[in-house]
């Protein structure tokens, strides 16, 4: 018999169920709509449609946390303004001055994930002033961040009105229904992204099951966290853990402490979780990330290595270890890690860019340009700037200063506030004796990204050569405040001190 | 309770009370069992004679039972023997090197103290009431070892109450490269050096405490009889971060990573195929040169980059109303006159207060900016929301820039409802 005939003869509800299983959400929703138009009180179809709509949009929301500007600066949970060294992600001591920084001033990580790109500073002014593009700006609140990532359905207009009108829903009635309540909650939380109603609903539901269901406690905690009531969230998660250990809850609790800027408590939670689930990769990743955030790179790399022993295909670990090798002067080892990523099927501008840089520093010159050509081909607007910047580096290495200058101009055309590019362009102009241009470019570099010490140092050197000792002193001071052990800056400072004392 | 002063000369301890001699205690009689050894040192005229006799003695009573001086003598290299012999023959074998007091009961501040006597060989504790050596039941545990930059001369404990910081001050005799001995005072916190004071002469004696009005004073006596008084500044800060003690040999240990296998393979490849690598590199680089030049040419044609103008845009505010600040800088030598800046936008997504701005002159090397307010209306893709900025002089476009607008909260639905909710909270 013809297959299509069999399918056509299937019960609509059954085929809808199959469609859901096959992640064929649109068809599932369609079938459910047909059933519901015939019988609006068909609860099974209603639940199925709800599930399909939810799953269409649901993501792993443990990872998708990005702290918005408002969350980090207007929170009332800030306990200590000046946290002790090593206890806060914001004041994490910078031990790795070789690693370049992101626009926000954080040392670069091997992988871009939520919150690695965001600023670590405490300064609201800075956060608001940092050149904000889609690529670099932080969202205003974590809710916004979610919206961008998900594009929640609430923004997509529905032709025949909303599927469920939440404001007219009888919460106690549905919350008491054990079959439906969880589905409905997920629908409100993920699909509608209506956290306040989701919270109300969860409160009703947990009341109904006599506060005995850990699932509802976790959901309550999730809602509290989304609303910024972190301490209430913590209480819910802890209470959920009393019913038994659960990786998800441990992870959520750890994330919550990171939002409270208490990485040590977060590590504590992870260690506790590890005693229950000793080989759990997600927990190890969490620990490795926290160590990286604390700038404890050796520990972070140790955990990433542990992860690779358990799961040899974890891209984040490979990338992070590769990066570590690159910045500890072993580009040939880093090259191996990145090649592994390429073999695993990753194919993007960043990877080719890294491969090009690694082979350049490992003196494999014949493949460098091929890598960068690939990177340029794959690059989008926001990462093309960095690719051009790296090409300029290679050009300087090859001694081709004209090409270097062109590449730097191209970098700036894509990202006009690329501090490092401005700085390097200034140095190139300086070599060509264009001192005034070099000076103004350096000033722009400082204005664009004032967490780099190089422009400050160069400005100091330039000022000293010109005999402007006062500016030189001010600049060298700034350079040393960013990188206290910079030898050349200290040199200038000593010379200036000698000069000033001889006056 | 009686206050006394104990003074040590060679191997005798003199006790004074009320500035009168009270008791003399000689350690020789009780501690030194091996008078034979002393005799050897005094009687022998020659180094080698002494060496022979000492070897005989060590085989009879055991090497361990010899004094440290003799032990070192036996272990010494031949070329240093005579020097060593001359240095120590006049000295008594068992001199007291340092003494200190030790409270018999730690909690009693004004309680009776014992005297801890250290000779070249051993540490013993003397009871100051009965003048007898206490049975040696004490045990010591070494907490850490520090390598000093030179021979230690004296040490003192330094407790700064205002900082609640306890330090150990050690003075060392450092031999310079030119052969002169100099003093160096090191302050240890735990096993880390937190401060160093170089002194012109070796410091033989240090004391820390109150000096007149000053709480924290360090008084030092140097070998040539100078008294040096150092006061601790009230604002002093010590560098307390933990780092390995690099006092003696400051050798910059560069962290050079191990040579990996891959590295060796690669160098082999370079050696064997150097020609091919070079040719290929040159070829591909020439191609990339063309790509770069082309791109640059295009960008100049499209006025995205300019040699004479550097711009950057800042976006201030939290939204939906932002302030765009567009900074212009003239990189050329001549002033730019009659510049117009226009903001091009899609009216569906934004509204801009004054979308154009005239800048009469841009003087070289100074930065000027123009500002305008932009209000976002609806949600859209990033390309649709971007605002183009065009800089023109007369009819000529000289520069173009694009500002990507950040995402902000627009609650298009139930916006008012939410506002009411916030009010009622």
Task: Report on the architecture of this protein.
The complex is a heterodimer of chains A (503) and B (425). Chain A is built from 27 helices and no strands. By secondary structure, chain A is an all-alpha fold. In chain A, helix 15 (281-293) packs antiparallel against helix 16 (297-310). Helix content of chain B is 23%, strand content 38%. In chain B, a hairpin with a 2-residue loop joins strand 9 (181-189) and strand 10. The radius of gyration of chain B is 41 Å and the shape is elongated. Chains A and B meet through helix 7, helix 18, helix 20, helix 21 and helix 22 of A and helix 6, helix 7 and strand 14 of B. Chain A: Residues 88-100 have a biased composition (Polar residues).
- Return Rg of chain A in Å: 27 Å
- Helix and strand pattern of chain B: EEEHHHHHEEEEEEEEEEHHEEEEEEHEEH
User: What portion of the residues of chain A fall into strands of 2 or more residues?
Assistant: under 5%
Which residue ranges of chain A are poorly predicted, with pLDDT under 50 across at least 5 consecutive positions?
A: 116-122, 130-139, 141-158
* Share in helix of chain A: 55-70%
Our measurement of the CA-to-CA distance between the termini of chain A, rounded to an integer number of angstroms, reads 104 Å
Order of helices and strands of chain A: HHHHHHHHHHHHHHHHHHHHHHHHHHH
Distance N terminus to C terminus of chain B? 73 Å
Enumerate the spans of chain B where pLDDT stays under 50 for 5 or more consecutive residues: 243-250, 411-425
Number of distinct helices of chain A: 27
CATH class of the domain at 375-502 in chain A: Mainly Alpha
Binned strand content of chain B = 35-45%
Kindly state the mean pLDDT of chain A as a whole number?
Answer: 82
Strand order of the largest sheet of chain B: 7-8-9-10
Main beta sheet of chain A? none
CATH architecture designation of the domain at 375-502 in chain A: Alpha Horseshoe
Quantity of strands of chain B, as a count = 21
Q: How many structural domains does the protein architecture of chain B include?
A: 3
Count of strand segments of chain A: 0
Query: Pair with the most extensive interface?
Result: A-B, 61 and 57 residues
SS-derived structural category of chain A: mainly alpha
